[in-house]
Amino acid sequence: LELYLDSANLADIETLSRSLPLAGVTTNPSIMAAGGMGLTRLLPALTEILGADARFHVQVLSNTADGIIAEARKLHALPFDIVVKIPAHAEGLSAIKALKKHDIPLLATAIYNVQQGMLAALHGADYLAPYLNRIDNLGVDGLQVVGDLQAFIDQYQLPGKLLVASFKSVQQVLQVLKLGVKAVTLPSDIARQFLATPATHAAVENFSQDWRAVFADNLSYD
Ligand code: E4P
């Protein structure tokens, strides 16, 4: 299972990476704009924080197949482990088809229905990103779309893996993991909720009180 943070906020990534087993980060143009930093500064800073093995999913800004192809080649030439995110619309699918011949790691993004994901997977996209919560917001069952796509990948033994995105609750993340998806990306607030453990803190405080009642501040079993 690959776990990503859906963020370009260095402070968040620094803090959360201390406790989370992150494979890397995912971004999109909105996330990059919010982070306020271009790739030239961001990628070295993220490598410093996450290590040289970190994988970065970076979305193209162009909307035409030719523009996407040119941008993907530029991103792929950077000295980082970059997966190029390409929207799964007609122009994007055309770019994915062309780029796979050059063995560039690709993620088909902004997937709102099963057929988009199927086409991207058949073109050889390495990752497929269905937007769970945004699909739900359209009145469609996002979990069903994710489940159908996972079944399609399994049925035809396609190499692409789902990297499910757009979560608004921890529960949604746990539900898609039950479907056997191989990757998820968490917004910072959901990642923080994963690390919220009030009952554990209360239990540990009880242990400490019991210990201190007998041994005061001695923190050794010797
Ligand atoms: C992922 O890479 C997507 O761009 C992103 O997760 C969309 O999530 P949102 O619906 O929270 O904006």
In short:
By secondary structure, this protein is of the alpha/beta class. The chain has one domain: TIM Barrel (Alpha-Beta Barrel), CATH 3.20.20.70.
Describe this structure in words.
This is Fructose-6-phosphate aldolase. It is found in: Cytoplasm. With 222 residues, the protein is of the alpha/beta class. The chain has helices at 10-17, 29-35, 39-50, 65-77, 90-100, 114-122, 132-137, 142-155, 170-178, 188-194, 198-215; strands at residues 2-6, 24-26, 55-59, 81-87, 106-111, 127-130, 161-164, 183-186. The protein has 11 helices and 8 strands. Strands 1-2-3-4-5-6-7-8 form an 8-stranded parallel barrel, surrounded by 6 helices. Helix 1 runs parallel beside helix 3 (39-50), helix 4 (65-77) packs across helix 5 and helix 6 (114-122) packs parallel to helix 8 (142-155). Residues 6, 26, 28, 109, 129, 131, 133-134, 165-166, 185, 187 line the site of erythose-4-phosphate.
Low-confidence stretches: none
Separate helix tally: 11
Rounded to the nearest angstrom, the distance between the terminal CA atoms is: 40 Å
Strand content: 15-25%
State the major sheet.
Answer: 8 strands, parallel, barrel
In total, the number of strands is 8
Shape: globular
Mean pLDDT score, rounded?
A: 97
Number of separate structural domains: 1
**Element order: H for helix, E for strand:** EHEHHEHEHEHEHHEHEHH
Key descriptive features of the protein:
single chain; TIM Barrel; binds erythose-4-phosphate; Transaldolase_AS; globular; eight-stranded parallel beta barrel; 51% helix; schiff base; 222 residues; alpha/beta; TSA/FSA_arc/bac
